[in-house]
Design a protein that fits this description.
87% helix; mainly alpha
Amino acid sequence: MKYAKVFVVIALTSTIIVSAQQQRHSGGKGKYYKEFTVEQLATLKTKKMTLALDLSEKQQQEVMKFHMAEVEYRKTKMEERQAKKESGELKKPTAEERYAMENAKLDRMIAQQKQLKEILSNEQYDQWKKMQLYRHSQQKQKSRKESRRG
């Protein structure tokens, strides 16, 4: 009888832990890309940036154009990847293909950075850079924690 109670407590605890893990992994930004239109996503990103950097009306318009292009590109890439996955064409890239993809990604990031530097003031740009560094460090910490859990 005593062991049955212990077993029930252990089973309940492990069930709660597993369900909490699944809920945490099921969320994320992937949902946004499926639920919202390009305009809605760009508007949300622009408003967040406006709040963080106190953008002027003109800057908001320019940042909106910037985000529209960025979201459109990302959504297109995601749809292409999904189509390949569903058709079975998605395969692990070779080292050369990974290098080309990473190189293209970095070139795109550099171009985006230059574009934002033209839109933002020096103070706003410095603040944006700090936000990007913080976000990058948070993502690194998260990926390290997840890799330790295995």
